[in-house]
Specification:
400 residues, Aspartate Aminotransferase, domain 2, 7-stranded mixed sheet, 4-stranded antiparallel sheet, 13 helices, pyridoxal phosphate, cysteine-S-conjugate beta-lyase activity
């Protein structure tokens, strides 16, 4: 619980809030960090108390291990604080955080709108489970304006899913415009806000449900898998919490504790990695081998004005389009020659990563063609000058 001896966290800076949220306080006797609480069975003093417990199923109240315990509650409070919401459900993976709200709001015969730039496994949910249950999905151009968004909505549309910036290709969506169009028709707006953690406040821009892959910057050390679903309305909380419970979604308290520890340093990591990412992106933008750098914080980005309007900063993940004279095999050879960049999925950790993206992107709405082979870079906590030197030697492997 928050420390009552300090001013309200809403008036404090981000780093201060991360240091104090979800803790017992500063003027207490005990360890700084809350302990790990593990358990399955919860004991009650009598049968009546157990029966009464059912009335608290939407509260932070222990009834059984799958409903969480003190470690989960502390972490949920921290994530809700970061997202600017009221309630948060922590689940085992980022993909689970995508699935739970989709299944909370959609049923057979409903229609879902999904950006063509969405995270691939989110698309797989739509094409697998949802389609099998008679739920139709339409993939739309992520750059739609309010009028185009409104035109996509059908009488049976229940969910307008967003992801901004888009996975791999980093289109920034006009979330307030989409939210206005959706809410005018009673449609829920879901958003994968993983890239924008801290820098984009979803509920201030009309989002109903914010999704985070906490595996990324919150964990920060590439050693836990977690996700979260945060809301700002009691009705949405009941829908999401019920779906999570029915699906048996649960996060290991040990992983939650590791992420709770990781989040304490997230403010400084985000700031450092943002600056390093922009430095590397700007350097790449000036290289003759590069056709385009897909980083929303660069003025050259097509939706830079939207990013500047709605975001307070950027994370360290961006895309690179190489000149069309190169083949994808050339880009893969370049990535193989990098010494400081690992080749692997995920991002948000302390280490830099690089993966090819051409050939790994599924699009069905005619978007995502950038005229050259593409790669995605994540900039970690290494010195940016060292990363630039590594990229420079790797670029030399491209055919002249």
């Amino acid at each position: 619980m928050p420390d009552d001896s300090i001013p309200t966290t809403k008036k404090q800076g981000f780093a201060t809030r991360l240091s104090h949220a979800g803790r017992a306080g500063t003027h207490v006797h005990g360890f700084v960090n809350p302990p790990v609480h593990r358990g399955s069975t919860v004991l009650f003093p009598n049968c009546e108390a157990r029966r009464e417990g059912a009335k608290h199923r939407f509260e932070q109240y222990m009834t059984y291990g799958t409903q969480g315990g003190p470690t989960h509650y502390a972490f949920e409070d921290v994530i809700a604080e970061i997202e600017g919401g009221t309630r948060c459900l922590v689940v085992g993976t980022g993909l689970a955080a995508v699935a739970v709200p989709l299944l909370a709001y959609l049923k057979a015969g409903d229609h879902c709108l999904m950006p063509d730039s969405a995270y691939g496994p989110a698309r797989n949910i739509c094409e697998g489970l949802l389609k099998g249950w008679g739920i139709e999905t339409t993939y739309y151009d992520p750059t739609v304006d309010e009028a185009a968004a409104a035109a996509l909505i059908r009488p049976n549309t229940r969910v307008f899913y967003t992801e901004s910036p888009g996975s791999h290709t980093f289109e920034v969506q006009d979330i307030p415009a989409i939210a206005r169009a959706a809410h005018a028709r009673g449609v829920k707006v879901l958003m994968d806000n993983t890239w924008g953690i801290h820098h984009f406040m979803p509920f201030q821009h009309g989002v109903d449900v914010s999704i985070q892959a906490l595996t990324k910057y919150v964990g920060g050390h590439s050693d836990v898998l977690l996700g979260s679903v945060t809301v700002n309305d009691e009705a949405d909380w009941q829908a999401v919490r019920t779906a999570g419970s029915l699906l048996g979604q649960y996060a290991s308290p040990d992983d939650v504790w590791l992420a709770l520890r990781g989040v304490r340093t997230m403010a400084v990591r985000l700031k450092r990695q943002e600056a390093s990412g922009i430095e590397v992106a700007r350097w790449l933008e000036g290289r003759p081998e590069v056709k385009q750098v897909m980083h929303p914080a660069l003025p050259s980005h097509p939706q830079h004005a939207l990013w500047k309007r709605d975001f307070t900063g950027a994370c360290s993940l961006f895309g690179v389009v190489f000149q069309p004279r190169y083949a994808m095999e050339d880009v893969m050879r370049l990535i193989d020659s990098l010494a400081l960049f690992g080749i692997g999925a995920s991002w948000g950790g302390f280490e830099s990563l690089a993966i090819p993206t051409t050939g790994f992107i599924t699009r069905s709405a005619g978007t995502g063609s950038f005229g050259g082979p593409m790669a995605r870079l994540h900039i970690g906590l290494e010195e940016p000058s060292d990363l630039i030197a590594d990229l420079e030697q790797a670029l030399a492997t491209l055919p002249r």
